[in-house]
Amino acid sequence: MKRRTFVASTLAFPLAAAESKPKLLLPSDTPDEHHLRLMWYNPVSPIDRATYKLTVNGLVDKPGTFSIEDLRKLPQEKQSSRLKCVQCWSSRVEWGGFRFGHLAEYVKPAKTARAVRLDCADKWYEYFDLDDMLSARVMMVLDLGGKALTDDHGGPLRLIDPSRYGYKSAKLVTSITFVTESKGSMACDLGPYYTPTGEILPGYDVPLDLGGMKRRIRGGEITEY
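RESULT FIELD:
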């Protein structure tokens, strides 16, 4: 009697498919190794970095698409800054990437461009005045803690503006559109704790990287600790 060997090989196919299925990026209240909590608008699969392209268009003379390699050819910098969440917690991390001005210089915004819209893979969007995007402390982030920005933190590309609450620091950025005016933030549709421009207000902060003890803050970027 012949041995039946087809069962094991048949079962191998669904197992392999399950292993290759991309995970979903999900929120978590448990701080990670950077003392950051994870926030997402919609559960979404990680971006395929091999095919990723940042689309830059709208009121520009030279619209285009940029791979991760293209973006890393722009002048790169590092900065230590604290990400402050509107839910009160914060954490200081070393970010790495490029200033928006280098990208703007390449695409050449029209004189009528006064703002930009950032669209993200999880359907989140943000608006910024162009002058705010050109601030010396705003960074388009490719690295976190000295390593390539992970999927969980919005890789391959996100924004960090340490003077504004975390919801303004858009993650999973897939396109940037130059427009005539800023229209605020998608967060404003979600609840009363959000403002269109998202500036950090005077009040309290709970720095998770410093033990989580409540501290008073004066508003704006947190530089005291």
